[in-house]
Amino acid sequence: MKKTIIAILLSLFVCNTSFAAVATGYKYGKGPLKLTRGMVDILEYYFSGGKKGKWAKKQKQPWKPGFIVITSDGSGYSMYRHPLSVSNPDNTHYVGKARQKCKKKYGKECFVFANAYRIVWDNGSDKKRRILKKKEIMAGKTLQILQELGFYGDSVAQTTTQTTTPKKVEKKKKKIKKESKKKMNDDIVQQLKDLKELYDSGALTEKEYKKAKKKLLN
Predict the structure, then answer these.
(1) Per-residue pLDDT tens digits for 129-144
(2) Whose CA is closest to 203, among 38, 18, 76, 42?
(3) Which of 26, 72, 74 is nearest to 187 (CA)?
(4) How far apart (Å, rounded) are the C-alpha atoms in residues 36 and 191?
(5) 153: left (phi > 0), else alpha (psi -120 to 50), else beta?
(6) Residues 145 and 189 placed together within one structural domain of the fold
(7) Considering its fold, how many domains does the chain have in total?
(8) Does some domain include residue 12?
(9) At what angle do helices 166-201 and 206-217 cross, to 10 degrees?
(10) What is the pLDDT of residues 155-193, one digit of tens each?
């Protein structure tokens, strides 16, 4: 009985040690950050272990979020998934590898956005709220939380004062419409890139990839 308890404690220590290698505090993001809709979908996939959101599917091997790095414009990323159990932990600097991969692919500096279920990118929002709860994630509230924290949402003002002339109002409406259309097109392009990356990583089958791509283009 004593040997069994010791074995359990050792296995717990190994898992925690391997995860501690991720939680280094190295190159955490800081400052304002606005995520694209495509990135929000990726984050929901990441936080839920692939079980919720647009890219959700049945996972052959269950996993939990390890960490994810994101470009400063909120459009590109690289992430590592963490197995539920670890038998051979190592000291590889995965954060550094992820940042290099992200920069090589998008041509921009990338910083740690989340470590496990904790958003470490400091944009001045409530630190306690930046720790996501599993029950909220599985209830589909990831988007809502990101909006509350100021990481997602339309920053274009759509209100006018009484002194604004009808001509200026119409001009502003056209500008907003044009910006919204551009943002929508940019989001579609980014979602196609994210979709291809999920397919290349094996998260999606060829059939699922083609179906999702067709849906986006239509």
Answers:
(1) 999 999 999 999 999 9
(2) 42
(3) 74
(4) 9
(5) left
(6) no
(7) 2
(8) no
(9) 170
(10) 432 333 344 456 666 676 666 666 666 666 777 778 888
